[in-house]
């Protein structure tokens, strides 16, 4: 029965389906080192159950080298908001120096 209905285009999805707009991923272009940086937060398991560490990593997109990192027991709002404020996916190196230094958040530079 369904085969015949499908051949005559008499069957369709009854539920209203929401059409999502086409999404294009942002493209970042770096023509040299230290132009565009990307950052990431990773949870690392600690020595005992229930203990987790947050590792913040800042990478140079052009050379794919480590620019800086921070390991902390809790997620630092000052560092996360400073990274998120410049851009959700990446940040330009000249803007990254705007991370507040007096807030107790320090970046270990490589």
Textual characterization of the structure:
By secondary structure, the chain is α+β, with helices and mostly antiparallel strands. It has a domain at 36-109. It has helices at residues 2-7, 77-86, 93-96, and strands at 36-45, 52-60, 66-72, 90-92, 108-109. It has a five-stranded antiparallel sheet. Strand 2 and strand 3 form a beta hairpin. The radius of gyration is 23 Å and the shape is elongated.
Helices and strands in order:
Elements: H1 2-7, E1 36-45, E2 52-60, E3 66-72, H2 77-86, E4 90-92, H3 93-96, E5 108-109
Antiparallel strand pairs: 1-2, 1-4, 2-3, 3-5
Outline: elongated
Mean pLDDT: 75
Order of helices and strands: HEEEHEHE
CA-based gyration radius: 23 Å
Strand runs, count:
5
Tally of contiguous helical segments: 3
The percentage of residues in β strands lies in 25-35%
The order of strands across the largest sheet is 4-1-2-3-5
Point out poorly predicted stretches.
Answer: 86-110
Helix-strand category = alpha+beta
Distance between the termini: 68 Å
Largest sheet: 5 strands, antiparallel
Helix content: 10-25%
Distinctive features:
elongated; five-stranded antiparallel β-sheet; alpha+beta; about 110 residues
Structure in a nutshell:
By secondary structure, the chain is of the alpha+beta class.
